[in-house]
Design a protein that fits this description.
Blueprint lengths: L2 E3 L5 H12 L7 E5 L6 H5 L3 E4 L5 H7 L5 E4 L8 H15 L3 E7 L10 H14 L3 E6 L7 H10 L1 E4 L5 E2 L4 H13 L7 E4 L4 E2 H12 L4 E4 L2 H10 L4 H15 L9 H6 L6 H11 L1
Helix pairs in contact: 1-7, 4-5, 8-12, 9-10
The structure holds NADP nicotinamide-adenine-dinucleotide phosphate.
NADP nicotinamide-adenine-dinucleotide phosphate binds next to helix 1.
Protein name: NAD(P)H:quinone oxidoreductase
InterPro entries: NAD(P)-bd_dom, NAD(P)-bd_dom_sf, NmrA-type_oxidoreductase
Organism: uncultured spirochete
Length: 286
């Protein structure tokens, strides 16, 4: 059985490869698919074959997927280009006869009001009609998304956001990655869509957890969209980038990431890391 992982130089892909090795998948059975072959030293040191697989260049995908049985498609990082990129990978997987494609999507991608949802929804729809056996892993937020807020709170004691009383059911990237590795090597998952999430918390709970991790008082400051845009721009974001962050936060206020569930715990066979432990780990990584 040959397993391949896209984005394997990235944070998520690297963790999945590490978990596959932890689960005793031989290095000779894992192909690390990379966007940039100058970043592969650590993968080669692990004994893995690396292959160029650029989501924007279908010919690289056709070559990269030769002989691959099971593929993890880690969603791309270029918002706006991703639907085309993902459909390129799925089409190449179909041509190569991939027997299972596992795709990392977003919480409730089919109904979510998140500005990130349409590309994931489009990918899921394309995947379902592609004829390639699939599993969809709808990941909630990474807890690591808050590491910048945490660093700022270390000096300011404030976590600011335009999410009102919105809630998030984040989990650590490493837990989502372990779940992905388990699904990739496991049986009985084809055709399933999993909603992967951790415990649900609001931003007052986030501030409380940040206080614990930083060892100083931290409070949540709720602001409206205009105030938030202004302060993000004052911190150096472009108007477009600030607008995007605010749109994400407003979708959180609307409940797009609020739903916890048991799928992640079931796949892991244990409780996912708590918010506090996830925040602690994210600080250790930076
Ligand atoms: N749920 C969440 O909270 C959350 C948060 C952030 C991201 N995400 C999603 O999860 C994905 C993985 O996250 P991550 O933290 O691992 O991101 P990351 O560290 O930025 O990794 C992204 C990977 O994708 C590769 N890549 C980028 N463009 C590509 C292309 N055109 N063709 C092939 N590979 C390409 C990158 O390679 P290079 O570095 O060489 O370009 C890198 O290996 C992201 O891409 C995004 O879709 C989810």
């Amino acid at each position: 059985m040959i397993y391949a992982v896209t984005g394997s130089t990235g944070a998520f892909g690297s963790l999945v490869i590490q978990r596959l090795l932890d689960f005793k998948v031989p290095a000779s059975s894992i192909v690390a698919l990379v966007h940039n072959q100058s970043k592969t030293a650590h993968l080669v040191n692990l004994g893995l074959e690396t292959r160029l697989a650029d989501y924007d260049q279908p010919s690289t995908l056709d070559r990269a997927l030769q002989g691959v049985d099971r593929l993890l498609l880690v969603s791309g990082s270029e918002v706006g280009k991703r639907l085309r990129q993902h459909t390129n990978v799925i089409s190449a997987a179909k041509k190569a006869g991939v027997k299972l494609l596992v795709y990392t999507s977003l919480s409730h991608a089919d109904t979510s009001v998140s500005p990130l949802a349409p590309e994931h929804k489009g990918t899921e729809e394309f995947l379902k009609t592609s004829g390639v056996p699939f599993v969809i892993l709808r990941n909630n937020w990474y807890t690591e998304n808050y590491s910048t807020d945490l660093k700022q709170a270390r000096t300011t004691g404030i976590i600011e956001a335009a999410v009102g009383t919105g809630k998030v059911a984040s989990a650590s990237r490493s837990d989502y990655a372990e779940a992905a590795a388990r699904v990739l090597i496991g049986e009985g998952h084809a055709g399933r869509t999993y909603e992967l999430a951790g415990e649900t918390w609001d931003y007052n709970a986030l501030a409380k957890a940040a206080s614990e991790v930083l060892g100083r008082p931290v409070v949540y400051k709720t602001v409206n969209a205009a105030q938030r845009t202004q302060s993000l721009m004052a911190a150096g974001l472009s108007q477009d980038a600030a607008g995007f962050v605010v749109a994400l936060e407003q979708s959180i206020e609307a409940g797009s990431l609020a739903q916890a569930g048991e799928d992640l715990e079931k796949l892991l066979g244990r409780k996912p890391k708590s918010l506090t432990d996830g925040l602690k780990a994210s600080l250790e990584l930076t």
